[in-house]
Amino acid sequence: MAPDPQDLKAKALVIHEKLCAVYGCPIPYFHSLDPLSELISSLLSHRTRNAESGRAFKALRARYPDWRALMNADPHEVEQTIQGVTWPEQKAPRIQAVLRAVEERHGALSLDFLSEMPIAEARAWLQSIPGIGPKTSAAVLSFSTLRKAALPVDSHHHRVAQRTALIPASMDVGPSHQALAALLPPNWDAQQVYDNHEVMMLHGQRCCFFKSPACGRCAILDLCPTGQGRVGAGRIPGNAEATP
């Protein structure tokens, strides 16, 4: 039997409140980039550690006076500039193609106009560009100076949502964006939606590990059927890997 939607919404809210108590909400925004810059940063970060993608972004900033210069640069030069991220040979031409698509479709190399669009419309506009998926579109709207109430879902967030049964175990990251956003109160502002992503992500990074999750010290164990199953089977991992 499918879970009752109202029960899931109530559970998502309790999980949010418990994790906010652990990780401290409101959580400061980690970026104050304009939306076009945030788009480039997000494209660099795919399957890449934050430290490496951050270094690559700074390297692009240092090498090119503006994003038009990056768009028109030799792709091999861009690839060399972003060495350290995963698949730089793919990301370099993809970033340049995305920049060209923005200019062709909007008539200017800017995404500031998205501030005037409803969230669903803005995300659809971004995702109509090849190479931009739901996570990137949400990141651009949420993390940039646009500060819109769009919910990104990364691999850590997704893992916690699956293990707590907020979404089915079979649901991929892409469709989980819509499913998880639908569980949040519709009147939440951008900060609250951002906090939800951050606490779910942080919990995945610091407690709900991909391997050997630290269920014995999990603040939401009472809401996690996966963790309860592990504890019941006597498979409670040690707490040495990380602390909240």
TrEMBL record:
PROSITE patterns: ENDONUCLEASE_III_1 (PS00764). CDD domains: ENDO3c. Keywords: DNA damage, DNA repair, Endonuclease, Glycosidase, Hydrolase, Iron, Iron-sulfur, Metal-binding, Nuclease. One of its GO terms (molecular function) is hydrolase activity, acting on glycosyl bonds. SUPFAM superfamilies: DNA-glycosylase (SSF48150). GO terms for biological process: base-excision repair. Belongs to the Nth/MutY family. It comes from Microvirga aerophila. Its cofactor is [4Fe-4S] cluster. This is Endonuclease III.
